[in-house]
Protein 1
Amino acid sequence: MSVEPTYGPLVDGHGRRVTYVRISVTDRCNLRCVYCMPEEQKFRPRPHLMTREEIARAAGVLAAFGVAKVRLTGGEPTTRPDLVGIVADLSAIGFPGGIALSTNGVLFPRMARDLLAAGLTRVNISLDAAEAEHFRRLARRDHFRPVTEAIELALSLPFESVKLNSVVIRGFNDDQLLPLAEMTRDRALAVRFIEFMPFGDNAWSQGEWIGWEELRGRLESAGYELTPVGKGPVSGPADEFRVSSPDPSSGGALRCEHRGTVGFIAPVSDRFCDTCNRMRLTQDGFLKGCLFGHGDVDLLRPMRQGASDAELASLVRRAAEVKEHRHPMAVGMSRATLPLHGRNMSEVGG
Ligand code: SAM
């Protein structure tokens, strides 16, 4: 089922059509990834978070603008006890581009089948290291095993796609580049390497950042041959590549095609602002045009004050109108001049 776009297409102030919304359902997380949130992160009081019904209502208004694809993120969405119900609600609204989930995987095995049955179509699992000790240093929690189980389980279920997201930080986990890429050899997994972004109060430095071209070069130096995969109508921000590499079972004499793909997500090198089709809804109900954006429009307070759907629709239109053309790094801002907006990544929904 899909909703007729009763409000017409949602077009931002720069002429780009918005077809994709990322909804953060919580700011809470069961990991403390060093690049994402501090150990002592303070969480919003639960009454400040959107309820299941409020999420469904906001999603329904966005669907009525022809927004076709939705992703649930956080914080860690699987820490919400009503996540399966939220997916079922979105499924009933109808998103023809699919309902996706970004998760760290720790709790995913417990609910994977229920999420699938409720209508979840795609899963992205974050994993920044292929080895347990590296994982613990990055995530500051010892949950490597359930995450690897989550990946294998997701691959065994009929999801449309299973992707792995890895943030690469020089001197911290860049030695994991090849072990992570190797996971594509025998698995139908899309492994995507994400450029480390300065955000909130994370400890980002230019020296720790590695651009996607260097990452690609390192894989090629290791014998990987990368062939670009064309972007589809609902492709995300990654540049994806099919991979062939020397086959270890032939001593490297023969090459083998990997079952999965490798991709790069390059927000700092600015690979996608021009074609950005997304908006974000924070767990406390603010609609944002850009991860780094400032023109947030509050949908939750009006909803709680009795706003009609038509009133919510005009707030959605306003948020689209003020959507930033490019994010600050894409216009050459350094860490020192980057405007801070008081939220860490986990509070926006990365
Ligand atoms: N907990 C879920 C997960 O782990 O996928 C969803 C939320 S998490 C904030 C979403 C994505 O943002 C993850 O893939 C994470 O690696 C990425 N992320 C967080 N901080 C980042 C940063 N500073 N730079 C680049 N990516 C980041």
Protein 2
Amino acid sequence: MSDYRFSFGPWNIHEGADPFGPTVRPTVEFAKKLSVYKQLGFEGVQFHDDDAVPEVDSKSPEQIAKDAKAMKKMLDDAGLVAEFTAPRLWEDPRGVDGGFTSNNADVRKWAIDRTKRCIDIARMLGVKFVVLWLAREGTYIREAKNAIDAHKHLLDALNALLAHDKEIEIAIEPKPNEPMDHAYIPTIGHALHIGSRTTDPKRMGGLIETAHAILAGLDPSDEMAFALEAGKLWSVHLNDQNGLKYDQDKSFGAANLRMAYNQVRVLELSGYPKTGRFVGLDVKAMRTQKADVATKHLSNSRRIFLALVEKVRTFDKQIEKQFLDARDYEGLEMAVLAHLMGIKP
Ligand code: 3MF
Ligand code: MG
């Protein structure tokens, strides 16, 4: 039915812990998670390096290869594909003050080495794509790092990663804050610019998460458009966000349906399905959700996305043109709202 391909990460089926309370749902084991992908209408799996190879830091290259091979077989058996791998640097004690931008040269080396392993794992899972969410690459106080040096370290790290594997493509997922007070790569503009400064800009792109754009006070669809125009929107993390709060990862469209409509619209305008790239979700079930219904956020987000694709495709282009020609944006806005609500224009 759909020409879009959908993906999510196994962390999107989770136990419900938050900073103020423990888990509220039992852990779903990995194989069980894989078995629900197809049922919910998803074919792509987004991996952290240690989702694919647990305790990756303590394993030999042979053991990593063995584990990754076993994971690839699990994917094949489930009829799924990996979309990307992402190094989970932010959970390691060494990455407490960032990895690539740490003041400590040994930590910077560890972050690069671990990300090289993450790239190797991607290749063993059959993909040439990694995503860097630069979680702790920033500061709590400005004086904690020399920000100019920090950006230089980040650029050095990207170059080292591009040199490690001549075919790998790297997308940066920007986020303005959380866990740090200030992150160094807060928007897609920053992400694409630093990519353009590397030794191989054509292998550098971006992933845009709805909530992260909103947290930066920006419109997610315009952020996407910026990357799309450059051919650099290599994946998305669709979700929703109720204003400038903590990163909420709500179901797509749940807080702001019109903003969701515009994200779908910009993907449609760009012909995104033709790129073969995934529509990824990064959504969390509410903490109140009981275990047996803690995947509804995924199926609901996909359903809303597909319904909005229909809304975009069935919006009367004739009427749109008339309002644009007349520069009557009040009229255009009402036509959009009427279409979304299913009432007479
Ligand atoms: C953080 C995020 C992360 C990243 C993911 C991939 C849990 O705000 O959005 O999702 O997207 O870790 O690197
Ligand atoms: Mg994300």
